[in-house]
Amino acid sequence: MSIYFLGINGIIGSGAFLLPQTIYKDMNLMSVFVTICAALTVSMVALCYADLSSRFTGSGAAWLYSYHAFGRFTGYELGIYTCFLGCCTYAAEIVALLTILKTLSPVFSNHVVYYGIAIGIIVLFTIINLFGRTIVKLVDNLSSATKMITILIFIIIGAFFIHKMNFTPVIPKAATLGVGPYFKHFGAAFSVVFYMFTGFSFIPIAAKQMNNPEENIPKVLISVMITVTILYALMMLVAIGILGSKMVNYSTPIAVAFQKAVGDWGYVLVIAGMLISVIGVAFAGSFNTPSLIASLANEHAMLPKWIGKKNKHDAAWVAILLSAIITMILITQSYLFLVSCIVLASFIQYVPSILAVIKFKHTNEFPNNGFKLPFGYVIPALALIISCYMVTNFTWKTILVGVVVGVLAAVAYFFIEKDEKVEEKHQKYLSKMRNK
Q1: How many CA atoms lie within 13 A of 243 on its CB side?
Q2: What is the DSSP secondary structure assignment for residue 376, as one 8-state letter?
Q3: Which of 356, 334, 393, 344 shows the shortest CA–CA distance to 81?
């Protein structure tokens, strides 16, 4: 159940409350359809992760799978990109939190107040993480349960205030002018919804700290994706039903929709839920990212060993401090730019992971334990094709950032001394799995 809540916290964050306006602007009522399409797409990738997580017990997710499938350098690069993804997600949620606070009071627009609160949150999360995963689990479960209750209240009560006339227009006029304009609008909305689901990839990152991860993680991945898809689709439907075309006018559409339905207390309730939700995802990022960094250093010596050092609470204190510093730098960027970086980094880790599934199915290396991807190569092939479609929606600035991160990581790789004992242990493990 704790892994399930970790998954919910990792996915449902700022996007669920702030981005329906952007999605509606591109696709109107068809936003619900786009949400389901994106969910099906990401679910195919999630199923690939479920298959891979049933093969390995180590922490790391995408980088670990690529390491075993395609070698040390590929795994290392994926590890760096996943760290970058974690820090971007952490930073994006904090920026989203301050964006919400700005709607409540202009004082939060002051740079001193803005960055003071942002840095204060990062410092607080850092301190909590330094005391180990017991506190992390408690906070994570509490915030996940709170946000789900808030969303369910909005959906159930808001459904009684839906007006059918608000379900028109079904699609923007600009998107009906031809195939090109339609797919342009669809692609823009799809990219945004895609971002709202990307957090699932963090679930297997701390696998080594979980009980029976080969069986539990696949179950959680599937159940979390089903839960979130239903919640997102219903949230979008209810919000459109209450606000209609006016939805594009509000930066916090879910909160305003509930205010229109039940009064000011509804606005306060959703804003409170939003704040808890955003803090929950940021907190999950503050926990997952250092776990990944530490696994890179400790399990396969892809980073200097001192980065993986742990304190008496079994917390990777150097990795925790490092991720906090990087996040402090990233909070200077805009929310939408961070979102685009998150989608790019997700794409970069999805493709090798999907290819790893295909390879392991072909070679029969690393057998499944508890879950096996059905229908042969069909699901990974479809996931690969649709994931590659995401390339068409990246801006040159986002791609440039991705290239810079990859190049800097590649240069640093040649200065990291290999641990021969770790490498020898890995080769014995590969030989054992091949013989099996």
Answers
A1: 27
A2: T
A3: 344
Distance CA 180, CA 238 (A): 29
Give the model confidence (pLDDT) of 325-378 as tens digits: 999 999 999 888 898 888 888 888 888 989 999 998 888 888 877 778 888 889
Q: What is the pTM of this model?
A: 0.79
- Record the tokens describing residue 163, joined without a space: 């007006």
Residue found by looking up tokens 């961070």 in the block: 338
pLDDT at 407: 93
Question: What three-state secondary structure class fits 395?
Answer: coil
Q: Count of residues for the chain?
A: 436
Q: Which amino acid is at 105?
A: S
Span 254-276, average pLDDT: 91
Residues 373-423 have pLDDT tens digits of 888 889 999 888 877 777 766 778 888 988 999 999 998 888 776 656 656
Distance CA 257, CA 309 (A): 48
